[in-house]
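hey so u asked for the seq, here:
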Amino acid sequence: MPTTPRAADLKLTGLIGTMRCSQLFTGLPTEDLALIAGFSLTLQLAKGDYLFHEGEASRGFYLVQSGAVNVHRVSATGKEQVIHVFRAGESLAEAALASLTGYPANARAVEPSTVLLIPKAPVLDLIGQRPDLALRMLGSMSAHLRVLVGMLDDLTLKDVESRLLNWLVKHGRTAAGGVIKLPGTKRVLAAELGTSSETLSRTLARLRDQKLITVGARTITVLAAPALAAQLRRNLGEG
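ran it, structure tokens below
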């Protein structure tokens, strides 16, 4: 059945709305957003579907409309290390536009997701005409770099308990009521912390038994933030 003009208009409006929620496109005039939306492709991903694989030639960059996408690398021994979980409004893989070696990591949906693909050729043409958009993309890539640097800092903490405490302290600062929403499943969190699901579960259980946290299906509630921070300092030899 052919798409009616009204349906096409509604789809365009929806795409523009998604782009307005992204820091990358904030402040761009509607005409520019409509132009980008016009050549963007909507991808539907089931849980576990790959968006791209490491080394694959770049098709463009992506904007998450709904759901969550786990960007990770796999070591020579087969261990998966999560780099970041991207959610609605976040863009990813902008750096691959200028890379000759393709995507630097893998990207997989950790829940049913809708993702916009902004294709390489037309967006590079647009960047050539609009230096301000190039600067926005550099800013977005700088934000991703800060995430990577923070992750490397976290992984220098040698034991799993310290990495988990560090994660809880950082995320607990901004969590309403101390309730931290997990970025996917506990398996995703375990990979982000560079450990196994079993080790993470044992470590969570110890902190729960100490009455520092409670653990739900998709949340962790911080009950004693000062005590968590103090335990982290002791683990680091700073207490």
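Residues 160-235 form a domain with the Arc Repressor Mutant, subunit A fold (CATH 1.10.10.10). The chain is about 45% helix and 25% strand.
lmk if thats what u needed
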